[in-house]
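In response to reviewer comment 3 from the previous cycle, which asked for concrete evidence that the modeling workflow produces usable outputs, we include below a single protein chain processed end to end. The sequence was submitted unchanged, and the resulting structure tokens are shown without manual editing.
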Amino acid sequence: MKKLALFTLAAFAATGLLPVTAAFADGPSDETSFVTQINSLRATKGLAALAVDTGLTGKARAWAQTMADKSVIWHSSLSDGITADWQKLGENVGMGGTVDGLHIAFVNSPHHYENLVDPSFRSIGVGVVRSTTGVIFVAEEFMEPRAAAAAPSIPLTIPAARTPISVREPAAVQAPAAVP
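The workflow returned the following structure tokens.
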């Protein structure tokens, strides 16, 4: 009986009579792969690895889903949904067949590459959604956090020991140097 029910359900799904969602979230595996490849690229340039930020990841996942639902890519309003104190934001969006293929396309595109290797970026969030036809929609969100105000520093100077000057011999005086 269970086999018959499963077979019937499979038949409905195959014929399209069972509703199927337009796209599904990938989960962390493809997202992790993008982050790993980006950080590997940055390492070859002597740059720091990007830290995964949960806020950026949430925005990226939501944007990837939005693009997949419409089957078209476009850039989001960068600051929408970002609650962190940021100084600079960047975004790469794409669609394609494989994670590796999309990453190579980003590397080969001058403007996307700029985001990948921007030394001021410190954080990243990646969202990946696959359509039912297997097309990958990806959003990569980059952030440079606003620098925290530096604590005021009070210079600690210790006066140099004074050498007594003989009253009988005047100290040598040098003329000041000209300031360019």
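Strands lie at 23-25, 51-52, 86-96, 123-131, 136-145. We consider this sufficient to address the reviewer's concern, and the full set will be provided in the supplementary archive.
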